[in-house]
């Protein structure tokens, strides 16, 4: 742990809140405005300007994780920048995809460490806050606040800018270029016969508990279709990000599982709330009502193993057009639904999506990098990227369907229908949604990985053992029972808390 950087770890019991949902929302808004003000204090009235030479342009490399349509959209905008504003100012940008988010994180970490075979750090790289925080602690990141005026920063969504402030000193280390949240998508073609037979409605999927109940009914209904074959019901639902499930689920119930401030964290895995998360993921999973088979849950929809999933809004364009079975395929329809809320909890969505960080170098390269970021996130350019990537725009004046539809008409752009429906679902209700992302702390990446894999890996392993028992002749209800007792939860919970604490300290 760097000198002067203490990471406090403790398990605390959250106080009981009585009717304070409105107070929490108001306090959160006030805290955000105060913190944003702290960052704005450091931003100069006018941003710092550095003279560049167009006849001897500054070359910038950008590492990102965009692929497919997203990469094509990014490359097209980079080419346009180079041919116009970049040429005029003396800036030339080259973008390189590093593969997945994980691949990018590994490449950046290796480059920062100077590992054998690694490349030099790029001038700009896509990054989530945990990776950027670790880089900043090593002295590898440039403070971007010098190159943005307070007025310029005020044009971006406050919460997105706030994510780039790691401390209370006003230094800005991540700049937002495109964000995302979570949505739920469902195969409506296979949903309809189930809904007609049982009377379930899509409205029941608005809560986490409602999804569990519908998933149970779907398993029982599909099991009943083959009365001669017992215990062969099908799973209904899956989840992409388990860390989001933990972090946002806890926040909806009024608890910050990672309660961080200025790099110091208090872990709050409150037993009552964690038990609700266990009951609403692990229990339905081992019962066969949930599933996770492919790399992403959209893959499981495509193979017909589930009907619905909750995942990133940017994944909407990958929702399949058909279910592909061993020897045939069939087309399916879809619907975009809001992300579920824990019953009785606050309507809070995750705020996610990598921003861009600039590596510490010299004023010419740092200034040039910020000039590119300003251009890339200009309203019209950012909305063009949004149309091809299904990300959310980052400027205040771009976060509306009116702004999106205007640029589509003016630029005569085509947009993926799923991406459009997803953006419409979010942007039409944008002002009424509360977005949340935890603050950075030392070893935050490792702690988040515990949330991603600890419970989900256990669910997969235990479900496999249960399936084996069922195949040997044990009724599923009997096979499941030992795994879902209070004692089973207590055993897992104690181990989970220890692993989480160890990850945060390591």
Task: Write a brief caption for the model.
46% of the residues lie in helices and 12% in strands. The chain contains 20 helices and 14 strands.
Description of the structure:
This protein has 506 residues and is of the alpha/beta class. It is 46% helix and 12% strand. The chain is built from 20 helices and 14 strands. The protein has helices at 21-42, 69-83, 85-89, 101-113, 129-137, 150-154, 158-162, 188-198, 208-224, 242-252, 271-279, 282-286, 297-302, 363-376, 379-389, 401-411, 417-427, 444-471, 476-480, 486-505; strands at 58-64, 91-97, 124-127, 182-187, 237-239, 258-261, 264-267, 308-312, 322-324, 329-331, 334-338, 348-350, 355-358, 434-436. Strand 6 and strand 7 (264-267) form a beta hairpin. The model is unreliable at 1-41 (pLDDT under 50).
Write down the oligomeric state: single chain
Q: How many DSSP H or I helices?
A: 20
Helix content: 40-55%
User: In total, how many beta strands?
Assistant: 14
Structural class by SSE content: alpha/beta
β content, as a range? 5-15%
The averaged pLDDT comes out at: 90
Name a few traits of the molecule:
globular; disordered N terminus; 46% helix; 12% strand; alpha/beta; 20 helices; 506 residues
Present the secondary structure layout.
Elements: H1 21-42, E1 58-64, H2 69-83, H3 85-89, E2 91-97, H4 101-113, E3 124-127, H5 129-137, H6 150-154, H7 158-162, E4 182-187, H8 188-198, H9 208-224, E5 237-239, H10 242-252, E6 258-261, E7 264-267, H11 271-279, H12 282-286, H13 297-302, E8 308-312, E9 322-324, E10 329-331, E11 334-338, E12 348-350, E13 355-358, H14 363-376, H15 379-389, H16 401-411, H17 417-427, E14 434-436, H18 444-471, H19 476-480, H20 486-505
Parallel strand pairs: 1-2, 1-3, 5-8, 12-14
Antiparallel strand pairs: 3-13, 4-8, 4-11, 6-7, 9-10
Helix pairs in contact: 2-15, 10-18, 15-16, 18-20
